[in-house]
Design goal:
Layout lengths: L2 H5 L3 E2 L3 E2 L13 H18 L4 H7 L1 E12 L8 E11 L3 E10 L5 E13 L4 E2 L4 H14 L18
Antiparallel strand pairs: 1-4, 2-4, 3-6, 4-5, 5-6, 6-7
Length: 164
């Protein structure tokens, strides 16, 4: 693995700020806005892969989220600066399995994780479609770069109430 590939693992999004109008009546970041923060970073990662708005216009295809799982670990407050990461865990001909972490940018603590499966979609047919060959190669390059990270410990979690 080249030093450049290691430097790109995981993908780091830009610093974002928790807006005060995103706070709930408990005085911390409302759960819905964690998705906004994660999705903004994911958009940056997909633009980096050449899958942003230009790709959608040019190819009539984009990516849709099929499933997501969020874990809230530590609360965030208005004005907090945060940075999310994206790790490509796996992909196949039509899907990508992604894992994200959201960190407080100044204090460094892990606030939340998000895991999702995205689908490549033909926008006219509104159906899942194969990734083009050039995109498959870029996904492979990202997966190879992210392989140094190993499988995230929190990936693949399920939700349930365990009864004894």
């Amino acid at each position: 693995m080249s030093p450049t590939a290691q430097a790109n693992a995981p993908f780091h999004g830009s610093i974002q700020t928790v807006r005060t109008d995103w706070l709930d009546y408990n005085g911390h970041l409302n759960m819905a806005y964690y998705n906004v923060l994660f999705d903004t970073c994911l958009d940056e990662a997909f633009i980096h892969l050449g899958l942003g708005p230009d790709y959608a216009r040019r190819n009539g295809a984009s990516f849709f989220t099929a499933e997501t799982h969020l874990c809230y670990l530590r609360e965030l407050n208005g004005g907090d600066r945060v940075r999310a990461t994206v790790q490509l865990v796996d992909f196949d001909g039509k899907r990508a399995h992604l894992y994200q972490e959201l960190f407080h940018a100044d204090e460094g603590f892990l606030s939340a994780t998000s895991e999702q499966v995205s689908l490549h979609v033909d926008l006219k047919a509104r159906k899942v479609a194969p990734w083009p060959e050039d995109v498959l190669q870029r996904l492979q390059d990202m997966k190879d770069a992210h392989a140094v990270l190993g499988r995230p410990e929190r990936a693949g979690r399920s939700i349930s109430i365990n009864r004894r």
